[in-house]
Write a structure and sequence with these properties.
There is one protein chain. The chain has 164 residues and is of the alpha/beta class. The protein is built from five helices and six strands; from the N terminus they run βαβαβαβαββα. It has one domain: Lumazine/riboflavin synthase (Rossmann fold, 3-Layer(aba) Sandwich), CATH 3.40.50.960. The strands form two sheets. A four-stranded parallel beta sheet has the order 2-1-3-4, sandwiched between helices. A two-stranded antiparallel sheet has the order 5-6. Helix 1 packs across helix 5 and helix 2 runs parallel beside helix 3. The chain is globular and about 50 Å long. Bound molecules: ligand DLZ. Catalyzes the formation of 6,7-dimethyl-8-ribityllumazine by condensation of 5-amino-6-(D-ribitylamino)uracil with 3,4-dihydroxy-2-butanone 4-phosphate. This is the penultimate step in the biosynthesis of riboflavin. Belongs to the DMRL synthase family. Its EC number is 2.5.1.78.
């Protein structure tokens, strides 16, 4: 059974990052804005390794764009082999409403596929106004959101395993 927090004050600090060595991860990476998504991928992969994931237990797949991340996650989870899937993408605002449709679709899609399979599916998608904001969050001055996505995946995989 999970270590349960005793009272609300326990939420004041982040929990420790669990050992990831027992888990199998899928990483789905959008090819649009590839320089950014590759940086997110490097961050996520390195973080999984840092916290103990085994190379053989990290399976990475490209998809054309962020819109396809949901389908990628679904295809992985239906194999039954993954404890968590990390979706990495970068959607940059353009002149049309495409941005809004893609962001909404992938956020809803990731949520729905996680619920469908009762597995963590992590939203590692940058949704930015411009390229610089994306660079800043893919290893730049605001860190690497791929790292954060990996840590989230580990924590959620641990929670799921604890409650199984
Ligand atoms: C079409 C499109 C556009 C305009 N912009 C982006 C983007 O900024 N980031 C991204 O990941 N994908 C983009 N795409 C591609 C869509 O995600 C998708 O691949 C296509 O609409 C085909 O379904």
């Amino acid at each position: 059974m999970a270590t349960q927090l005793k009272n609300l004050s326990d939420f004041s600090t982040a929990t420790a990052i669990p050992d990831a060595s027992a888990f199998t991860f899928g990483i789905v990476v959008a090819e649009w804005n590839a320089e950014i998504t590759n940086a997110l991928y490097q961050g996520a992969y390195n973080s999984l390794i840092k916290y103990g994931a085994q190379e053989d237990n990290i399976h990475s797949y490209p998809v054309p764009g962020s819109f396809e991340l949901t389908t990628g996650a679904e295809l992985l989870l239906k194999t039954g082999k993954f404890d968590a899937v990390i979706c990495l993408g970068c959607v940059i605002q353009g002149e049309t409403r495409h941005f809004d449709f893609i962001c909404a679709a992938v956020a809803d899609g990731v949520t729905n596929v996680a619920i469908k399979y009762s597995k963590p599916v992590i939203f590692g998608v940058l949704t930015t106004d411009n390229q610089q904001q994306a660079i800043d969050r893919a290893g730049g001055k605001h860190g690497n959101k791929g790292d954060e996505a990996a840590v989230t995946a580990i924590k959620m995989a641990k929670l799921a395993a604890t409650l199984e």
